[in-house]
Amino acid sequence: MPRRVWLSLGMVATGVALMVAAQLAGAAPERRGGIFQVGTTGSSVQIDPQVAYITTGWWLEYATAAKLYNYRPGGMLVPEVASRFTVSNGGTRYTFFLRKGFRFSDGTPVTAGSFKYAFERVSDPALASPAAQFVTNVGSVRAHGMKLVIDLTSTQGDLISTLAMPFFQATSTTLPLDREVTDVRSMADLPTAGPYAFTLNDADRLTSLRRNPYWTSGPGRVAPRNLAGVDLQWNLNEQTAFEMVKASQLDEGPLPAAEVENVANQYGVNRSRFWVEPSSSCISEIAFNNSRGLFHGNAAMRRAFNWALDRNDYVGAASFGRTAWTHLLPPGYPGSITKPRLQPYAPTAKIGKARRIAAGHFKDGRVTVYYRSSGSTNQAQGEKVRRTLINLGFDPANITMKGFAGGDIYEMIGRKGSDFDLAVSLGWCSDYPSSGEAFLPGPFFPNNAKYRNKIAAALRLKGKARATALGRLDLEIMRNVAPVAVTNTYNNLYFFSDRVDPRSLSFHKVYEDWSIPSLALK
Fold it and tell me: Higher-confidence residue: 60 or 465?
């Protein structure tokens, strides 16, 4: 399942998702301190380092984690806890030499054993970590003081980029091996070794970060750390939270679709309080349940839905800068094919063609749609999918709509035996950009041996050859298998309070959100 589902604060609040890239030039802010107050409409996300797999969680963990190698906000992969590494045994043995001076928020020093323990938690079946899929070629991990040795069974993949994922951060041995950490009441409940640490995680109410008292500047420890901390409030009313940001009672929060134009006119774009940037590594999709129900073994209906969906209309529900898109690789992904004439589906609905393809493939005619109920945009998109099904030929009485707040939809569709047929407005982002990690096969990819073999063959290639092969497979799979209905690429919209210093805004290309250590208040 090589894909990171995602739920950014912008996406929860406005349905307009994540954004990429842009470091604002200018003098560094002088003020240090203050709590950055964030509000969002969705439910809370997981924060356990070996379990969290939603972008909001990774955004927080960029501030709390210490990794062997880490991405700077501009996208460069640099040594962090590791000072260097060597490769031997024909490319299958990596030896990392660690820096001294990193300490967890409970005062315990970080050693090679802290990274070995991350692998032990990842590999424990009871924890069911999504990270296990990324280290299937890891044979053994050994720790010797400040030296970590990783032996691989094959040279496939990019180990350094994999180790930069939050799953493989320095992990305190006080965390249970086989159980997710969810309830946090102090730094001692979830010790972390980055510039910040979790001090509170009260599910669906409040998640708080404060400075790690044992983190000091030094080799590998170069984050600015301007803020005293972050408070993230969950499950707020969209309009109320927007008004709180406007009044500077929150520092960042939801931007209802109906307010976007007014905010842009009042504050301008990328000047002070309203910020917009495109995402080059994320797409939005409507997922099919290919393991049961209507779409199981039913490529014809999957293709028919792709032709029936009016993506321009669907994107219009989000407003301000989404672009209709019809295949799996985002436009900024190596190998992605962007020529309009080569796209597998149209941006507008082709109902006649869709009905001809769908004929005889309705099964019992019943369909269950999961959608995200938090935020006006998500609700509007759920209704547009319902209308698409009716246009395709489904009886409205046989369409069941089920709404879920925030990230809950990901948990529900991931449950064994889940009854959904379609899941609306899901996000996917590439997990790490430099490895060429594939978008396939996703969690709902049909059991198709032909294309699984083709994907495996493409992943064995390197560089441009890999990118070209994946680009061609992308279009072929969407045309013939249609594992999902890709809907659009993104512009992310962010709305800040007047307290936020715009000179401190540094957008993280990889985690696709603002760098918490860089943020500062006026």
Answer: 60
Alpha helices (H) in 279-429, listed in sequence order: 299-308, 311-316, 351-358, 376-392, 408-413
Name the band, by pLDDT with cuts 50, 70 and 90, for residue 16: very low
Q: DSSP string of 112-143?
A: HHHHHHHHHHHH-TTT--GGGGG-TTEEEEEE
Q: Which residue has the tokens 């500047």?
A: 217
Q: Which helix (H) or strand (E) holds 454?
A: helix 449-459
180, two tokens: 């997710």
pLDDT for the residue numbered 320: 65
Amino acid at 123: S
The C-alpha angle 441, 424, 440, rounded to 5 degrees, equals 10
Surface-to-core class of residue 129, CB atoms within 10 Å of its CB (0-12 exposed, 13-18 middle, 19+ buried): buried
Q: What is the pTM of this model?
A: 0.72
Q: What CA–CA distance (Å, rounded) separates 407 from 409?
A: 5
SS3 490: coil
Per-residue burial over 89-110, b if 16 or more Cβ lie within 10 Å, else e, is eeebebbbebbebbbbbbebeb
Is residue 187's pLDDT more than 80?
yes
Torsion sign, CA atoms 427, 431, 432, 435: negative
Q: What's at 472, amino acid-wise?
A: R
Handedness of CA 234, 238, 240, 244 (dihedral sign): positive
Q: How many CB atoms lie within 10 A of CB 300?
A: 16
- Identify the DSSP state of 512: T
Give the model confidence (pLDDT) of 397-416 as tens digits. Answer: 999 999 998 778 988 998 88
SS3 403: strand
Average pLDDT taken over every residue of the chain? 88
One-letter identity of residue 204: D
Distance CA(255)–CA(278), nearest Å, equals 17
